[in-house]
Design a protein that fits this description.
The protein is mainly beta. The protein has 3 domains: about 20-140, Immunoglobulin-like (Sandwich); about 150-225 and about 305-375; about 230-295, no CATH class. Helix content is about 5%, strand content about 35%. The chain has 3 helices and 32 strands. The protein has helices at about 170-180, 265-270, 380-385; strands spanning about 10, 50-55, 60-65, 75-85, 90, 95-100, 100-105, 115-125, 130-140, 150-155, 185, 190, 195-200, 210-215, 220, 230-235, 240, 250-255, 255, 260, 275-280, 285, 300, 310, 315-320, 320-325, 335, 345, 350, 355-360, 365-370, 370-375. It has a 6-stranded parallel β-sheet with strand order 10-11-14-25-28-31, covered by helices on one side. β6 and β7 form a beta hairpin.
Length: about 400
């Protein structure tokens, strides 16, 4: 089984962004001995043809470009072969044409940290490009290794010491501000009711900054308001309280996430047949099942937008738990913005509005071996995508 699985994460990247994960600069050259079976003789590459290769851990992107006048009737196809070392070439899945000058595809089931020879042949019987063959080399990404820290800064939920040691832990922000490349910020067990923390600096490729939980302990970053709420019955099963911050998007009752209704009317009627809430400014209304009183339930109200904003590189976040982040416009446990070469591993994301969000020029970030979960399975499909939301503007 592959260690690296595909994970759906929210991406907010401008269309103009095209920085590759890794690029091999390829010098086109005629293929050596064995041409493809459909070509008795390999033709040399043309000045207008090029090959780009982009390696990830277990796959490699392949882009073949040709000249604007090389294939006027667009009948050419492309085949690809690959190998490591002096092994025999293997056929890959044929790239697909995406424009009159470009074919794209991928090689799969590759080994991490390996150098691959890639050979491409263009097939276009009777055309100028028929049997044109050229090669390139590129490597897949090597597995990420978490190094031993140069020094460790220990923090705790109640830490206030100056030493940042095991016996005298400091506050989380103090530890983060002290850590430099190669250092670790080690979170002792407990609940950290903190958020909107902007990390101060980057690590380096050979010396990342590690933010990690203490071994065999559970460090929880919690975006919920730790205070209590006074509820007022306003009728029709609805109860009202005042939140400490506006724009609440995450409320739980007895561990179950409440649906965010878009109007007080919909909340009153429970339009989607499930308990929910409605927020307007700092006014917060809830309507529980069977018109239950929220003062007799365990109500959690998010107060923080995010735990960490990462705008740096080579930050390794390991063995932490993030929960209940869901306030404000951008709501996620972790936000990576213009951030590259970072690692999120072995962590738990429990009932956040979003787990991890990547913004803008963020590249080569690895998110692996984590657990993401929520309590939405009883929400009907139409509650996620109301029918009227898909109607064109002005339609009836």
């Amino acid at each position: 089984m592959l260690k690296h699985l595909v994970l759906t994460i929210l991406l907010f990247i401008p269309a103009a962004s095209s920085t590759p994960a890794s690029t091999a600069t390829v010098a086109s050259r005629a293929a050596p001995a064995t041409p493809l079976p459909s070509c008795t003789t390999a033709a040399p590459p043309r000045a207008t043809t090029s090959l780009e290769l982009y390696g990830t851990f277990h796959s490699m992107g392949v882009i073949v470009s040709i000249g604007a006048t090389d294939d006027p009737d667009q009948t050419a196809t492309v085949s690809v072969e690959y190998r490591t070392g002096d092994k025999a070439y293997r056929a890959g899945f044929p790239p697909s044409r995406v424009s009159n000058t470009r074919f794209v595809g991928s090689l799969f089931w590759l080994e991490p940290g390996a150098l691959y020879d890639v050979r491409v042949t263009i097939l276009d019987e009777g055309g100028a490009l028929n049997c044109v063959t050229f090669e390139g080399k590129a490597s897949t990404r090597a597995e990420i290794r978490i190094p031993s820290p140069r020094s460790s800064h220990y923090v705790s939920p109640t830490g206030s010491g100056a030493a940042c040691s095991v016996s005298e832990p400091c506050a989380l922000t103090t530890g983060l501000n002290r850590a430099g490349p190669g250092d670790a910020v080690v979170l002792r067990s407990g609940v950290y009711h903190q958020g909107e923390i902007k990390l101060p600096r980057s690590g380096r490729a050979d010396a990342p900054i590690m933010i990690q939980g203490y071994p065999d302990e559970t460090a929880i970053l919690d975006g919920a308001d730790p205070g209590t709420f006074t509820w007022t019955n306003v009728g029709d099963g609805i109860y009202k309280t005042t939140s400490r911050v506006p724009d609440i998007n995450l409320v739980l009752a007895d561990g179950q996430r409440l649906y965010p209704y878009q109007s007080l009317k919909d909340l009153q009627s429970l339009r989607w047949g499930i308990p929910g809430f409605y927020a307007e400014g700092t006014a917060l209304y809830v309507h529980l099942a069977n018109n239950a009183d929220p003062s007799k339930a365990a109500i959690i109200v998010s107060r923080r937008s995010y735990a960490f904003l990462v705008e740096q590189s080579f930050i390794y976040i390991v063995n932490l738990t993030f929960r209940h982040y869901g306030q404000g416009e951008i709501r996620a446990a972790l936000i990576l913005q213009n951030a590259s070469d970072n690692l999120v591993q072995g962590s738990k994301f429990a009932i956040n509005d979003h787990g991890v969000v990547l913004f803008r020029e963020s590249h080569r970030n690895v998110i692996q071996g984590n657990e993401f979960y929520d309590t939405l399975r009883d929400w009907p499909w139409d509650a996620f995508y109301p029918p009227e939301a898909s109607k064109p503007s002005g339609s009836s």
